[in-house]
Design goal:
Blueprint: H1 6-25, H2 27-32, H3 36-63, H4 70-87, H5 93-98, H6 104-132, H7 137-155, H8 173-177, H9 199-214, H10 225-236, H11 242-266
Length: 288
C-alpha cells in the first residue's frame, strides 16, 4: 500500500539522520543560536523520526515483492475460508460485507479508512507517547517494530484476500466505489496478497495497547473499540478474513510481551549510594 512509497521514506530517513548528526555535533545548533538543551531535544526527535521512516520504508519495500504465484495465493485463501467455516463460529466475510453494501457513502468511508487512516493514527500515537510519556516510548516503538516484522514474515507465504478468491461472494469495494490503492492492471505483489495477517488490525492493536500501557484511567479501555472497528472495516471492504485479525492479535501479544521483557532486562540496576569508607567511631575526649 503506497501511502508513502519506500523511496520517499528512505529519503526522509536519510534527512532525519543527517539532522540528528548535525544537532549532535552542535554546528547546526550554534548557527541557529540554540542552547545545548534544545539541540539535545531536537536530536532525540530527529533520531526517532529516522528510525521510524527507515522501518516504514523497509515495510513498504518488502510489500512490493512477491515470493509466490497468484494461483497459489488464491488457493490458500480458499482453503482459509473453508477452515473458518469448519472451526470458527462466526458469519462469513460475505455476510459481513452485505451489511454495508447498500450504502455507497459508507463503503467509500470504509475504503478511505482502509487506505491510510491506520498509518496516520499509528503515527499520531507514536508522537504522543514520545512527547508526553518518553519513559514508556521504547516499549511501544519496539513492540510496533516487532509485530510489523512478524506480520511481514508470515506474509512471505502469500494469501489472496477474499475479494480475489473466486466464489467467495465478496466484492472489491475499492473498485466498486473507490478509493483504492491497488492498480487494476499490475500483477499483484506481496502487499496485495498479504491477507494473512492483517497489518491494519495489528497496528490498531498497537495503538490500543499503547494507550492502556501508558495511561491509568479506566476510560483507556475504550480504545479497545478501535481494533474491533478496524477488523470490521477490513472484512467489509473484502481485504481480510476473520483469521487474519486473530493471528494479528496473537502476534501483538507475543511482540509486546517480548518488548516489555526486553525493557526490564535492559533496565539498569539501582546504584547504591557511594560511601567514603566505614563510619568513624566516636572518640571520647577526656576533660582537662
Amino acid at each position: 500500500m503506497q501511502w508513502l512509497p519506500w523511496q520517499d521514506a528512505a529519503m526522509a530517513a536519510t534527512g532525519a539522520a543527517a539532522a540528528t548528526g548535525a544537532l549532535t555535533r552542535g554546528g547546526l545548533a550554534r548557527r541557529a543560536g540554540w542552547s545545548g538543551r534544545v539541540a539535545r531535544a531536537g536530536s532525540a526527535w530527529t533520531r526517532e523520526l529516522a528510525v521510524m521512516f527507515l522501518l516504514y520504508g523497509l515495510w513498504q519495500l518488502a510489500g512490493s515483492q512477491s515470493l509466490a504465484q497468484v494461483d497459489g495465493a488464491v488457493q490458500r485463501g480458499a482453503a482459509l475460508q473453508r477452515w473458518e467455516r469448519a472451526w470458527l463460529p462466526l458469519p462469513s466475510e460475505a455476510w459481513v460485507q452485505r451489511l454495508v453494501l447498500g450504502s455507497r457513502g459508507l463503503l467509500r468511508a470504509f475504503n478511505v479508512y482502509y487506505v491510510g487512516l491506520h498509518v496516520a493514527i499509528t503515527g499520531c500515537c507514536l508522537v504522543w507517547v514520545f512527547a508526553r510519556h518518553r519513559d514508556r516510548y521504547p516499549v511501544v516503538r519496539n513492540g510496533l517494530a516487532a509485530v510489523t516484522a512478524a506480520c511481514l514474515l508470515v506474509a512471505l507465504v502469500p494469501v489472496a484476500p477474499p475479494r480475489l478468491v473466486p466464489g467467495s461472494g465478496v466484492v472489491d469495494t475499492g473498485r466498486l466505489v473507490g478509493p483504492t490503492v491497488y492498480p487494476a492492471t499490475a500483477r499483484p505483489g506481496l502487499d496485495q496478497l498479504s491477507a494473512m495477517p492483517s497489518v491494519h488490525v495489528a497496528w490498531a492493536l498497537v495503538v490500543a495497547w499503547a494507550v492502556v500501557y501508558v495511561l491509568r484511567g479506566r476510560w483507556r479501555w475504550l480504545t479497545g473499540l478501535y481494533p474491533l472497528a478496524t477488523l470490521f472495516v477490513v472484512i467489509a471492504t473484502g481485504n481480510h478474513y476473520w483469521a487474519d485479525g486473530l493471528v494479528s492479535g496473537v502476534l501483538c501479544a507475543l511482540s509486546f510481551t517480548a518488548a516489555v521483557v526486553w525493557a526490564r532486562v535492559r533496565r539498569p540496576a539501582p546504584v547504591a549510594p557511594a560511601t567514603t569508607g566505614p563510619a568513624a567511631e566516636p572518640v571520647e575526649v577526656a576533660g582537662g
